[in-house]
Amino acid sequence: MPESSRRGLLFGAAAVSTGALLAACTSNEPKNARSDADTAPAADDKPGAPVTIGFAGPQADHGWLNAINENATSRAARYSDVTLEITEGSNDTAAQIGQVQTLINKKVDVLVVLPADGKALTQAGLQAMKAGIPVINLDRIFASPQAYRCWIGGDNYGMGLNAGRYIGERLKDKPDAKVVELAGMDNLELTQQRTRGFDDALKNYPNITKVARQAAEFTVESGQAKMAQLLQAQSAFDALWNHDDDQGVGALRAIAQAGRDEFLMVGGAGAKSAMDAIKADDGVLKATVLYPPTMAASAIDLARALGQNKGVGGMAELEIPASVTLYSAVVTKDNVDAYLPTGFS
């Protein structure tokens, strides 16, 4: 997803408390992954000291980004000891810096920030830390580790790796298999990481060749236009990896208009529309690789633990970890029912 506008094993959504949250990180395929909305804090997770959490998130101009904001607010509402001070989401770095400074001036106990631009917001993170307000840096990482107490986010390289492995296993017995890639915005590091992971996975399958790659812009319109170009240029291929389920809506339109169905498609992020299509199993879309927006719910759990001077259950340490990288689970027809409640619109 675009960094100005963006973004596994499922992590925060499967967590029922901060303790369960980090325990979930060790399992690759949870038996019962539930959305944050369907999950309550564990019975032994009793209210503690009051914590005011400041949340500076993105402008909700994309399904994934909207889900980030919803996961943060719904998770905070579950805790009687948490007060959430939330800013109006912004993709303008100057505006977001001002919002963070306002939260600092309000003397919140902990800050959770998903920066519009990690590098540009680094000074704001440093300012908060110097003011004695610990920062949970969500997804887009600040340029300095001194600007945050804990980073939690997705694994872009892992997304590509797992997409490539899934496609590789499906095509491993097909001679001279051909794959194409519908990427995100090429000027973003996250797009480059996803492509690198995908290419590295395909190195293990010498029978598979990536014959084309087209960059889109994480929008429905760009997905449709760029997919149409790929289809016109490639008369036949065996698999498509699309980096983002929002642009995948457009890609599927182009595929339907072209009347093509000779290949399998793998999406990215975990939109509900993609999961519905996977469950129906009546088209080319067979899987999606998660980049879970439930990381925002997990960030609230971590911020609460930090504000109450707690560690996390399942770990011996007295403190929360310095970083948490989420796993990019592959959702298929076989496990889609477990993940469907976490799909975002």
TrEMBL record:
Biased composition annotated in UniProt, kind: Basic and acidic residues: 31-47
SUPFAM superfamilies xrefs: Periplasmic binding protein-like I
Keywords: Signal
Location of the Periplasmic binding protein domain: 53-309
Principal subcellular localisation of the protein: other
Pfam families: Peripla_BP_4
Disordered as annotated region, ranges: 29-48
Transmembrane segments: none
Signal peptide: 1-23
Location(s) in or outside the cell: Cell envelope
UniProt similarity note: Belongs to the bacterial solute-binding protein 2 family.
Protein name, entry field: Substrate-binding domain-containing protein
